[in-house]
Design goal:
Layout: E1 2-4, E2 8-10, H1 14-21, E3 35-41, E4 44-49, E5 55-62, E6 66-71, E7 77-88, E8 91-101, H2 104-127
Antiparallel strand pairs: 1-8, 2-8, 3-4, 4-5, 5-6, 6-7, 7-8
Amino acid sequence: MNLEGRKIIVNKSSKELSELLKSPENYKDFMPDGLQKFETREDGFKFGLQGMPEIALKIDEVNDQKAVLKSASSSLDFSLTATLNPLNENQTEVQMLFEGKFNPFIKMMVEKPLQNFINTLTDKIEAYK
């Protein structure tokens, strides 16, 4: 299952964004309203949203072109990637991409909430100062 957010322009360099996305505690600023739990870990974070199971993510790779988060659970196989495309020294085009391997039943249940989550992350990153 592949989902993608809309492309946005952020008024930060790709280097500034990659530095921001290396730190687990910074992800709390991008979480949707309804966040009930947020715990940082050495290599990632765990969060819980109202009406959803808790999800643990590890920061897998961050550089000036992308930030890759992967599921910290062996029972769920997915990644969430923010592509960073520098437009100039002060602006970067960002797009969220989700890739997951789910059976058809799970896919049917999670597709819409995941798309909403990606849209909210995109909105929060776009509004970030």
